[in-house]
Amino acid sequence: MDLEKILPTNGPSISEVKKYIEKYLEEIIVIKCGGSVLLDENLFKQFIEDISVIYKLGLSVIVVHGGGKNIKKKLDKLNIETKFIDGLRVTDEKTIKVVEEALLELNSEIINNLKNLQTNVKSVTPKNENLIKIIPEKKELGFVGVPKEINTEVVLNIIGEKKIPIIVPMGIGEDEKIYNINADVAAGAIAKELSSRRLLLMTDVEGVLDKDKKLITEINSSIAKKMLKDGDISGGMVPKINTCLDAVNNGVTGVCIVDGRQPHSTLFELFSDKGAGTLIRK
Predict the structure, then answer these.
(1) Helical H segments across 57-169, by residue range
(2) pLDDT band at 130 (very low <50, low <70, confident <90, very high)
(3) Which CA distances in Å does 96 have to 102, 109, 181, 188?
(4) What is the SS3 assignment for 209?
């Protein structure tokens, strides 16, 4: 394998990559991307490049993508007002159609961009593969679900074909209808079910910060729980940390909150000593 041809010049060094690659060879890496990584052209391009590099290094990777900002743009255009309860979008019949449309568009965009980099991929949506069975989150949220059951065979077969599953975070309820799932939660559920080595949650923030707003590069779950209790972790970071804790306490070796705004953050998190965010272990 010619690492010089595969790795970007502004990514981790070849010697570091060599050191870490062994670690992941027989393992599965689950990566969730969302936020500005999907909206900002530059970040998107780098993210696609990083996924392609991981694939060309011969590793097994699964991608789950959100699309909140894309969904919001579409809803605004159609003048559909959005209500949120505890950070979750209230999703009625009209909204779920728009949500699905927005996510499928993003899914195709990710697929096409990866194919352009000679990377084999397969789209996973509730229409083509019933990957996630859900239970409704709360009645008042409408079509918002929580994963109840993951059909791991679907993704393992795709990985077995040496392809990357690109997953739309939606599932099917007992009513046979399609429900939206928070992308972090969907990625967490898949990572747990597969006992993956790493779960990466790409975000628009540096990672978990301490009281002095300095980045914490690594914490264990008991410290993270204490930070939640003391209110040191607040706002949008709370559900993310809860997803991380749930994952590391249920078979995932490590979960990283990765700063998707940094150049090649995915590669630095996986293949370098310094990482690119906060690593949470049990």
Answers:
(1) 68-77, 93-116, 152-160
(2) confident
(3) 10, 20, 11, 22
(4) strand
